[in-house]
Amino acid sequence: MKGTIFDIKHYAIHDGPGIRTTVFLKGCPLGCWWCHNPESRSGEVFRYQKEEKVNGKIVEVEETIGQHYTVNQVMKEIEKDALLHEESMGGVTFSGGEPFFQFNFLLQILATCKKNDIHTCVDTTGFVDPEKLKKAAEFTDLFLFDLKHFDDNMHIKYTGVSNKKILDNLRLLDELGKRVEIRYPLIPGINDDESDLLRMLAFLNNLKNKYPVSILPYHKIGSNKYKRFNIEYKMDGIEEPSGEYIEKVKNTIKEAGFEVTIGG
Amino acid sequence: MNERIKKLRTQSLEAIPHISVERALLVTEFYMSNIAQQVSVPVRRALAFKHILENKKICINDGELIVGERGPAPKAVPTYPEITLHSVKDLETLDSRPKVWYKADEKAKEAYRDIIIPFWDGKSNREKIFHNMDKEWVDAYEAGVFTEFQEQRAPGHTVLGKKMFQTGFLDLKKKIAIEIDKLDFFNDSGAYDKREQLKAMDISCDAIIIFAERHTTELEHLAEREPDDNRKIELMHMAEICKQVPARAPKTFQEALQHYWFIHVGVITEVNPWDSFNPGRLDQHLLPFYEKETAAGTLTEESAKELLSSFWVKFNNHPAPTKIGVTAKESSTYTDFALINLGGVKEDGSDAVNEMTFIILDVIEEMRLLQPSSMIQVSKKNPDRFVKRTARIIKTGFGQPSVFNTDAIIQELLNQGKSLADARNGGASGCVETGAFGTESYILTGYFNLAKIFEITLHNGTDPMTGKMVGIQTGDPTQFVSFEQLLEAFRRQVKYFADIKIKGSNIIDRIFSENVPVPFLSLLIDDCISNGKDYNSGGARYNTSYIQGVGLGSLTDIMTSIKLNVFEIKKLSLSELLRATRNNFEGYDELRNVLLNKTPKYGNDDDYADEQAISIFEIFYEAVNGRPNTKGGHFRINMLPTTSHVYFGSVTGATADGRLAHKPLSEGISPFQGSDRKGPSAVIKSAAKIDHLRTGGTLLNQKFTPSLLETEKGLDAMVQLIRAYFRMDGHHIQFNVVTAKTLKKAQKNPEHYKDLIVRVAGYSDYFNDLGDELQDEIIRRTENENF
User: Fold this and answer.
1) ipTM
2) What is the CATH number of domain A2-262?
3) CB distance A10–B679 less than 8 Å?
């Protein structure tokens, strides 16, 4: 079985505990306006012409986005970092895209990792089939679980999908007693309405377990890629949150009784 | 930092390096005297040393607590005409060159023209050396195949052990008297040589004691005239200290520092040794004094730090001796490589990190001076908090301290035949060189341009830069049918040039032994006294000669490229590839892009490329390791460049890895600048594939932006990265925490900065992959972080 991967990062220090190998799987059912990796939405491998500077001269180079890997090939890449994982109590993180987009492949690697005693993290939008989530949970030590907007209409507007399934899935993981870290992208003017945030916190408070929350402040990193890949960019005029503002939101979350970090 | 230290530090930073002819005139005056003609060479050297210390100006800087300057003022740099005789033109060059310049005034030039040059012309050691090198050596040297460390600076490359912190020069005089007494003129044919050497050592003891006494006199004078009561007391106290040390073993913390400093000034006055001199394991040496005095209430942490800070300034007052020609190119820096070692293990193998370690780390962070350099030794027995404390200093981005693997160093030393105790008392000095402190002469003999030798191999022994035959004929590689044939040809060329280098080095060693013994340095390193033998003649317990390989990363990429593109996928023939490199890739943009971006590179944990690194390492190791030197020791390899990778690059044409002609080679065992694309964990994996334990040091550079170390987790990750590298026996790693200046350069020349990682927001990425706007923002942010 082969999966489609668009990047493997070997010194990832913000994708879960310790130093991690982060495997980015291609394909995502969401279309978040602020997505950093719009090239990961399509599940397909594609090529594009990239301009590479070679000694001041611009040379047109064909670049491929995405590469097919067997489970063994991915495992080999992960195991290269074994010592780093051990020293840092780290492991592997599957991110995307939405890793569940390639569920069978994901499940196989997760199972192989667990067999090899590698700590596993899955960074998910939560917009997944609950049965699949349950199966994957068996081999997942920690879920990095995105909550992007608590208002469903807004969620549909900005991501293209309803948040209902996402919230249900979070309840499911809660029932299963899995370790979860909530990831909240903070995007001024889009998902930072205080009453929405408070409702989200209330929801989290009603769960059986209390999960730490990580604020991911919006950054204008994507813009260049949208141009490069010829994808419509809808974030013009949206500003990055200031440090002060991030602190304020952090306090709100803290006051609601959650452990909170900034930036994963 | 208090006002006094601030002032001393500023004075040191603002002082302009300038040439002082004081030493050159004194040494000339002595060599012209009758007595100089009547005595043996070692005694002559000792008397010259004494003459200098008896007559040089005593310099005591306002407010300082540790005294002693090599020249008449801070950053006054003496010259050593008996070793290297500068011409007036050299002085003009030193005075006018844009980088690493030394002011040379008219008076200095006049002294050279009228007195120094007329006396020394034709007699300097440097002239003897070049006169004795044969054609093969000169051809290889001129082609840039290797450099020669000793051509204008004396061997030194050694570090003080703990014994000298417990010994005074009066003690040494007693020991010398006993050794002279034991000489057996009836049965020992070397008795006379030993007596002359021991006499010279004894004179050198007197010289340094006189030097200290002269400081006492001057300090007392100053105290008399001092209006400020506090400073008056300080000066009187310092005068007392200079009566005690270095004649007697130090008893207090301040005495210990002053004791070392007199020794340091002595070593760098006697000759212009490489790596100035070095107190080595400073936290170990100072701890007993610190503990004793803080318990007695005569010293506080604060006063200890103040003394250390004043001590730090002394190093910074002493730029490297003047270097010219190839030597200036291979080591283009004022830094003179005194490398303070902290941490590691004690002689009994236990964790050596102590209170003093952390105090010195505080001083390093606060002083933020380029000299002395500093490093930590990390053993598996040392606590993480020690490494993390260091990471916090590294984060501030001045490249210090560097980080070494104690457990690897010990194994390297054991592998070279040192005792376990001597190995545990060792460490690294200079850049990364392994040595047994207090017991070993381990000299660097010169850099060895592996990439150039491969270029010569590709041209069947000819240097394509000049068309001159400099190597041996190992066959026309365009006729080779396998990559193995090429590798074999390279092996023969490496052996050929290593032979030339070793022969030259052995001759140079003898020239130093016969003409420039160093009786003062010999006092400091065991077992020169009991052997009755000079440091430069094999008197030390261990005697190692290193040859430093350069260009491992570049050459790995070059060989990988040829193996893949020529011999395996046969994308093009070797003749075609050589045509492209000879044309410096003019008109070969597409090919060059393939070589740069589509060919596996060292530094990415890719076995296909990394196996070439192993081959190169083994070929170099076989050619050098274990060959005897003239001092009873052996040649060994290490892998470091200082700035020679720039010089070696400048003499090497375009290469099969896509590098353009005359551009720098890779440095140390680091990947070629920009070719590591998979982050630091892949770099350490690649770098650990060569067998560090069979070297005497390797150098690995890593670039980080400050933001990658912004969080506690970022710092932890750095510690874990170090631990992982050291578990794989990596010898050394240093972190370049990159500043805005570099990022701006990266914007202009992104192809050189492909490996530059930045922390963006919630994730990290390569700088090149970011949009212009974000790059600008990060540059601004970085500037804010730094200033």
Assistant:
1) 0.91
2) 3.20.20.70
3) yes
